[in-house]
Amino acid sequence: MSFFSHKHMVKHLSKSNLKVRAFAFALTALFNLTFLTTSAFAQDGGMSAAALEGEKLFKANCTSCHDMQNKMTGPALKEVHTRRSDEWLVKWIRNNEKLRASGDKDAIAIFNEYNKVVMNNFESLTEDQVKNVIAYFKEWKAPAPKPGTVAEAEPKANFYSESTLYILLFLIVILLVVLLVLRRTKNSLKNSYNEMTGTTEEVAEVNPKAAAFRKWVNPTIMKLGIGVVVLLALASYGFYFGVTEVAVQQGYAPEQPIKYSHKLHAGDLQIDCKYCHSTAEYSKQASVPSLNTCMNCHKGVQLRDKYNGEVSPEIKKIYAAMDYDVESGKYGEHPKPIRWIRIHNLPDHAFFNHSMHVKGAGLTCQTCHGPIQEMEVVQQYATLQMGWCINCHKERKIDVENNPYYEKLHAKIKAEKDNKNSVYSKYFTKDGKISISPAENGALECSKCHY
After folding, report:
1. Number of domains into which the chain is organized
2. In degrees rounded to 5, what are phi and psi of residue 330?
3. Domain boundary among 89, 112, 139
């Protein structure tokens, strides 16, 4: 409804009839006031103050396990007030364990239906606050779908790719060949024309200095010299390319089958890297987490509020791989693995042990992987070349005094503190602290990293 114009209301009325005009003006003001009132009322979803307060409490305490329209860890709460009395709901929400212990059949049935998952007690909420939540259940209305919303956007084609580069280079070569053929054709036609017409081209006078230079320089040697220069240039470029490009994947950021955001999980939510990569402290590999790890959270966290009541498209991929049915909360018999694309891939002859660096050296993930907590799409941050590893082993210092892993080394060096002839004397700083790098502790031996 739009505002009514006074002129529109009275354009067909007689201008002489002041009473009618006054009545029309008053009617216009009434319609405008009604519009403003209904608009403001609609902004609150038409809910009472109690229901609005209940909505805040519901979103702050319940949305991790419950949704109004869809079954999650707990049941959908749409029209729950029609299935249970207000008094029962108050008791259940505030202390469901106590209600079950009293022998209430409905409470026990719900507990068994949802795999005996214990619901949190909310005795911190007063009875009036719980009633406000129930008022929200009663007055809640399903949101209208947003126009133009798509659950999952189609991936955009990227024109600038490696294939595009190869195509452009191929076209350049073709054009150069065409240019060469046209040039030779032009010269051939020109020579034929001169023969037919008996025309001779004027020969330009040669500069005496240029003629003397041509006699002084051996043409064969000059051609060989130019060839050697070109060959050296190409060889230098090939060497540089081999050292910096071959098997170096710095910046490599492939699109994964599930768009997992480290920025969201490790950055915003501050989930410890070792929660997912659980073997980093005691194994050579950091391990790719199984989807069971994902389901620890995403069995309840479904982001329906961002997708018009539907499960997030990326979380749906997890459910599909796990053969998990959202409605029943049960797993099927046909799970399948997610084919993740490997990003960090050392050569087969290089040995790297995560536990040695994470547990032994006490390094953080960011030391090698960069600011992983800021990456929406994970990429290879470092070159991971041998030179990069060697520089780290030379420049970084071992904390032998506080790291239990180096307890024996610390004791051995400390015992030689006052012996100036000891090989360990050079590892003491002026203030008496120990400063030793992994390289000085044998980390540059070939067999440490190569089989």
Report:
1. 2
2. -120, 155
3. 139
- Domain of residue 105, residue span: 49-139
| Residue 1, pLDDT score | 41
CATH number at residue 125: 1.10.760.10
State pLDDT tens for residues 257-312.
999 999 999 999 999 999 999 999 999 999 889 999 999 999 999 999 899 889 99
Q: What is the pTM of this model?
A: 0.55
Instruction: Answer yes or no: is 20 within a domain.
Output: yes
Which one has a higher pLDDT value, 77 or 375? Answer: 375
